[in-house]
Amino acid sequence: MPAKIRFILIFFSFGHQISAQIDSLPRKNYSATKTQESPVIDGILDDKAWKNLTKANNFVMYYPGDGDPIPPSHNTEVKIVYDNEALYIAAYLYEDKPGKIVKQFTQRDNLEQSDYFQIDINTYDDGENQIRFAVTAAGTRADAKITGNNEDYGFNIVWEAAVSQDENGWYAEIRIPYSALRFPENQEQEWGIQFLRQISHRNESYTWNYVDKAVGLMSQQTGLLTGIENIEPPTRLSFYPYTSAEIDRFDGQTETNFNAGLDVKYGINKAFTLDMTLVPDFGQVAYDDVELNLGPFEQIFGENRAFFTEGTELFTKGDLFYSRRVGNTPIGFNNAQREKLDNEEILENPERTDLINALKISGRTERGLGVGFFNAVTAETKAILRDTLTGNSRKKITEPLANYNILVLDQRFNKNSSISLINTNVTREGNFRDANVTGFLFDVFNKANSFNFVGEAKMSNVNLPGQNETGFASLFSINRTKGNFRYGASHEFANETYDINDLGISFTNNYNNFYLNTSYQTFKPTGIFNQYNIELYANHQRRYRPDVNVATGGGASIFAMTRERFAFGGFAEVNSAFKDFFEPRRENTFITYQPNIAGNAWISSDYRKKLALDVRTTYQVFNKNSQESFNFSFKPRIRFNDRFLVIYGFEYDNEINRPSFVTLQPQNVIFGIRDMKSFENSLQANYNFTTKQGLNLSFRNFWSVAQFEEGSFSKLNKDGSLTSINYDRKENYNPDANFNIWNLDLSYRWQFAPGSEAILLYRNSIFNQDELSYLDFQQSLDNLFHRPARHNFSLRIVYYIDYNRVKNIFNS
């Protein structure tokens, strides 16, 4: 056996044997009954299957209190039966004032302020990797994959739920097919299970099995479901064929496009699942919140593509996977502009690479070993340049055919701990950059669940034409995780060649940083508060090579929520002078920013009311100069009725007298004093006809202007200070910027069958960026509307096909 494979097997075998099980309170146990007559999922609990069954009851308070019994006026009972195809759950949610039941109509995975009933199922009973099912009093369904504190609502599976209501309360009826679950090959199953009821008008939630919030996580304190015997999971094979059509009109030109493709989900065995997307289409993903970016780092966007958000918890370990790298801007996009000849113009330079296909395999064995494999292939991308004198055109490859690969091994033990090994790899065809990163991670709790130890060791290797670079980074932290009073310390390190940005995301390297924190938090209502948390923190940041003090700072923060669900908080901190080694854009140079103090305050009112409000403001002021920054955001939300919700957002940023990078010269780094302000207006409106049909409006206008003060230009000195110079922006690069972007989406979504939906979308977008920094907001908006607007209409239909249902149809 090769030494590398032998080491991995010993490594995971050792992890499985570490320590003993966590001490816990006695668990509630419910034994499910097999039914010969499956209930009809209509929300009316009059089926024969629900007669004469044991009840799971005696719920206790989870929030805001700690273990208080549920009042008789809100008695809650749950029954469970099963057959050869699915698990069935009936919930009796009694309410003495049924007129107060909150049931806002929303679309899938949006619970809003509704009353809801929630089920967490852990088929391996390992305290981790649970699947959550929730249904609101209005009938909206939500599902998520729970890993630690992470709730992945991008995880969607096909299951059924229906609700009803009468003068005694409301009722939920749920069917969870075995094809939606992964479970061990045992004659009798033992699953971790937890039920939770949210009563919104009382601002209270209750669980079936008691959860001690001061110790560990909710996922580690489930009850036990037994009695399920001799079940054979069906073949887990489903298809999601899609078709889409769009009409795009921009600057007087109209284009039409038609796409068709297929997503496949296949259960390789009872533990592992294969997901594939063939001929993917991401034409209807949400717009990114693009801003004017004058800093040294790229702007980071959230992932909107379902394939890259669903079931990716294994691949995100160690923060080595930034999924937007797959199908992102070609690595040679800027080279096309830099390398074009004087007499050439760029006819075409795609800003995105096309994804050819992608697959992921993930699952976890009975002994807690999680295995994940991800692979994606992107197409070759070319820029087209034309000689304006001869008319001849040439093509330049900006991104070759590329393969992205991730392999993860994650061993869970003791229901709260893990050790992991992850490798990411990017291989590009031809004489281009390749990369490989390997990480070893551990996240371990002691037996009493009172201390947590987290560590990471990562090694990067970048293969450049004729050159290789190897880098290293590490992290270690220890934290008290039990009781009201908690504390922790951590250390982060990276050398100067650490680089994970081919598939991951890392803004900085060459650091050696230290952090301390301590906090006091409550888990029971105290006085007027349901909960509050007060924290003190400090940090000391250093450069690794050469060993240089970068900055030292500390502060305090507070979070509090009253019994009336009014939340508020903020922070105040003091920071020393800061040596910024990245703003100058030249290696081994830095600019020194003066010591500063900063503060933040925010409030958030009760979302249960028709009108609610979020307000936040931040202020920072620097010593020895007039540099300062201010931020203010204002977000009211109006719930007109149970179907119609509108959220308006306004944000204002103003940065004054900031020394900022302008340009690089052969001998100098040029800086200037910059003022920068921005306005953002956004609107989200949802009208839901039912929980399966709704209209959604999304609008955003972002305007930002950056203006460099005349006569304020300087060159950067070796000691981080600035010396004034004469810099003529008319003859050189003008750093002033006026940026304005407008996006509007109006969509109609219809879930016409389980797992199937149709989306009709209209989009309107306008963009402008120039150097007219003297324009005010209204003038910039007028200029924007003189730019050509893009109008896009698209229709996308996805249909869910379950292999087992098709097979049964043919058999019958």
From TrEMBL:
Which residue range or ranges hold the DUF5916 domain?
233-810
- UniProt xrefs under Pfam families: DUF5916
This chain's protein is named: DUF5916 domain-containing protein
Q: Taxonomic classification, please?
A: Bacteria, Pseudomonadati, Bacteroidota, Flavobacteriia, Flavobacteriales
